[in-house]
Amino acid sequence: MTKETNKSIIIIGVLFFIFGFVTWLNSVLIPYLKTASQLNNFESYLVAFASYISYLVMAIPSAWVLKKIGFKNGMSMGLVVMAIGALIFIPAAISRTYALFLFGLFVQGTGLALLQSAANPYITILGPIESAAKRMSIMGICNKIAGALAPIIFGAILLKNMDKLEASLNSMNAVEKAAELDALSARVITPYIIMAVILIGLSILIYYSALPEITTDEEDETLAAANKNKTNVLQFPNLLLGTLAMFLYVGVEVIAGDTVISYARDAHGISTDVAKYFTTYTLIAMIVGYLIGTVTIPKYISQQKALQLSGILGIILGLVAIFTEGYISVLSISLLGLANALVFPAIWPLALHGLGRFTKIGSSFLIMALAGGAILPLIYGYLADTFDPQAAYWIVIPSYLYIWFFAVKGHKIK
């Protein structure tokens, strides 16, 4: 790779770090807002829903914006929108209005949808398709290092003395309880102001950076001939099947990271001071997986084979979590991070392969599929309330089974 390409990869790596940090804050926000806004499981997982449903709503508009202003300016704009979402947390915290928190998360998700619509295809195209999963693995490392840090940093602020506070709330009268919850809600203000300032600063840096613009509207002669009779993106089965794989994958990834803290506390009685680290363990497991990917793909193992192994490992760990107890069960959920690590970087090139001039709209389909992170955790929350948090993890088994199918056969259907 050229020196310019390496510089571009570093810049995109910073962006992956940022949206990793913001995305994985949900693992802390879910138990935090569950107490601050006095919610049940289903209501608390609306945090994930609000964050990820924006991908479904905004992916196609994001593609239109990127077509008009290009990848680079789209990334800069995405960071500004994320900063606006962060600032909405201030009035939400002051008024302790859960709906306003959710709106702030939706706005942040809108910025993330634009950012990811630009950054994911950008890094996929920025080099040979055979090593795209390797480049995506490097981006994943940046993303998950940020994700591992986010629960530790924000958990120390938002979840401080949470067990003690929850125990004392039961003995308070209505006025005292409201005052304590208002103070708890206010903890979020300063961190989100700092976040907004950083996001705006990065937006300015990206805008004035030397990132090259990449076009996806041109095709080489072979690809142009193959796509001669293609009139729309729905004529690419590998994309459509890959979109479903992405939907299910993001759903189980978010379940693994965002439910594990609450699961450890509610189902196994593990204290918050200990439980708040389990999401970090999930992200560390993903980092290990990404490191394996950077070393082995494509030299020792193809991205298709890596995806097959990921599906099988996900099924095994899901079953262990369901049929064991205590720390073994909880750690099995965290270890799903290892099964998840290479799924995202493998689906992108397999689903977008051969799309040529349809790549941007195809990328939008995959971004829309990130809405799996909105739907599946919400289903998990409903199942946890209806049955129990452990039985609710049955939802991951068919998801990993389909991911395995896409790796074995689905991506080959043209």
What does this structure look like?
This protein has 414 residues and is an all-alpha fold. It has a single domain, classed as Growth Hormone, Chain: A (Up-down Bundle). Helix content is 79%, strand content 0%. The protein has 20 helices and no strands. The chain has helices spanning 3-23, 26-36, 41-44, 46-95, 98-125, 132-158, 162-169, 174-186, 189-207, 221-226, 237-258, 260-268, 272-275, 278-296, 303-323, 326-340, 343-352, 359-368, 372-386, 396-408. Helix 4 (46-95) crosses helix 18. The longest helix is centred in the N-terminal third of the chain and has 50 residues, at 46-95. The chain is globular. The relative contact order is 0.16. One of its GO terms (cellular component) is plasma membrane. It is a multi-pass membrane protein. Intake of glucose and galactose.
List the helices and strands and how they pair.
Layout: H1 3-23, H2 26-36, H3 41-44, H4 46-95, H5 98-125, H6 132-158, H7 162-169, H8 174-186, H9 189-207, H10 221-226, H11 237-258, H12 260-268, H13 272-275, H14 278-296, H15 303-323, H16 326-340, H17 343-352, H18 359-368, H19 372-386, H20 396-408
| SS-derived structural category | mainly alpha
The backbone outline, from C-alpha atoms, is globular
CATH class: Mainly Alpha
Multimeric status of the protein? single chain
The SSE order reads HHHHHHHHHHHHHHHHHHHH
User: Ends: how far apart?
Assistant: 30 Å
Radius of gyration: 21 Å
Q: Supply the number of helical segments.
A: 20
- What would CATH call the architecture? Up-down Bundle
Beta-strand fraction estimate: under 5%
Number of separate domains? 1
Helix content class: over 70%
- Which fold name corresponds to the CATH topology? Growth Hormone, Chain: A
Q: Low-confidence runs (pLDDT<50, min 5 residues)?
A: none
CATH superfamily: MFS general substrate transporter like domains
Overall mean confidence score, pLDDT:
88
* Number of strand segments: 0
